[in-house]
Amino acid sequence: MKILNPTYIYINGKFQENLAVAFNEKIEAIDSLEKLQKRYPNATIEETEENAVLYPGFINTHVHLEFSANKTTLQYGSFMPWLDSVIENREELVGECSNDLMMQECQNMMRSGITTFGAISSFGAELEVCRETPQKVIFFNELIGSNASTADMLYNDFLERLDESKKYSNNGIIPAIAIHSPYSVHPIVLKRAINVAKTEKLPLSSHFLESQAEREWLEDDSGEFLTFFQKFFNSSKSVTKIDEFLESFDEVPTHFVHVVQANREELQYLANKGHSIAHCPRSNRLLGCGRLPIETLIELNIPFTTATDGLSSNNSLSILDELRAGLMLHHLGSLEELASLLISSITSKPAEIFSLNSGKIEIGKDADFALVTLPAKPSSLESIALQTILHTQEVSNVWISGNREI
Ligand code: BEZ
Ligand code: FE2
């Protein structure tokens, strides 16, 4: 048994003092240090510094590890020039992306407190790294292909990758399904994949309404995607419409990524069907996609997570960098409340969305922790989330299932 006795513990969305946590692989007890020591006299006390804040391990729901080699290659500022640059440089970037590089990025994520992440995998090449990293991984096998003539072949390849990931479901891998997007997946295979997620109860995610160009293409087959599809796919018509795509997910609560360009009616539809959203503030800014109106998500009660996306549309995979961006982007409303919401978006919210036994400091949950040390005493308990986001470049320690990894 181990005992952690930090200055503050994040429990139920609030910061509490004079509490300690006893844990093995799971959290066994939460009480005063004296009581825990009496109950577990042989427990080891884990060292913490003054002004240490214990959080549940952070969860990054959406990352593309295969683009970890990108630093300055891709074109930022607007979605279509970015997508063109991805297509032009994809082979080179994926070729440069070694297992060592991806593992370094898993370590970088861990230094920002991430103990679980959702990896979007288009080829399955990340599986080995995801198996070996100490973090738990929701392994999203991605389905792509809008062209009817190749859709079957791509679907079978997707099923094979999904089966391969299932072999490691006891080794920290949670097999899952990702749909690339409405514009890039043929509706027939889309429905088949959603059905697999439904019958096998697998986590499901999809990029959705990321850019204005996507909206124009889905609404009336026009805009920058028209040139793109004519050039690469010899096609002038979108394979689906916004409503049709959304309705396909009616029976399976899905984690939709970006959703920046959805209107209020579409957001209300997501709320009605129990869907959730992954918010990637830096990716949206760098690709010129706009700002997700999180105040509307709050009003409509749509759960959302904050995620980094990949290094194809970001300058780091630090979830703390991402929260700082979110804090600066959403200038409406109370600053401290926003900070608290952002912390919940990488802890309790993703855990609830994906039914993970983590994301909360609670008896029986996995002992996944991120320990942050503030530079000085915070002015109030209510300011701790904000001060954590502002001042933490790297966490002090990380535990995953009770093992100290940093
Ligand atoms: C497709 O396979 O249809 C596709 C892939 C990437 C971007 C757009 C479409
Ligand atoms: Fe993404």
Structural description of this entry:
Helices cover about 40% and strands about 20% of the residues. It has helices at about 35-40, 80-95, 100-110, 125-130, 150-165, 185-200, 210-220, 225-235, 240-245, 265-270, 280-285, 295-300, 320-330, 335-345, 350-355, 385-390; strands at about 1-5, 10, 15, 20-25, 25-30, 45, 50-55, 60-65, 115-120, 135-145, 175-180, 205-210, 255-260, 275-280, 305, 370-375, 395-400, 405. Strand 13 (about 255-260), helix 10 and strand 14 (about 275-280) form a beta-alpha-beta unit. The chain folds into 2 domains: about 1-55 and about 360-405, Roll (Urease, subunit C, domain 1); about 65-355, TIM Barrel. The protein is built from 16 helices and 18 strands. Bound molecules: benzoic acid and fe (ii) ion.
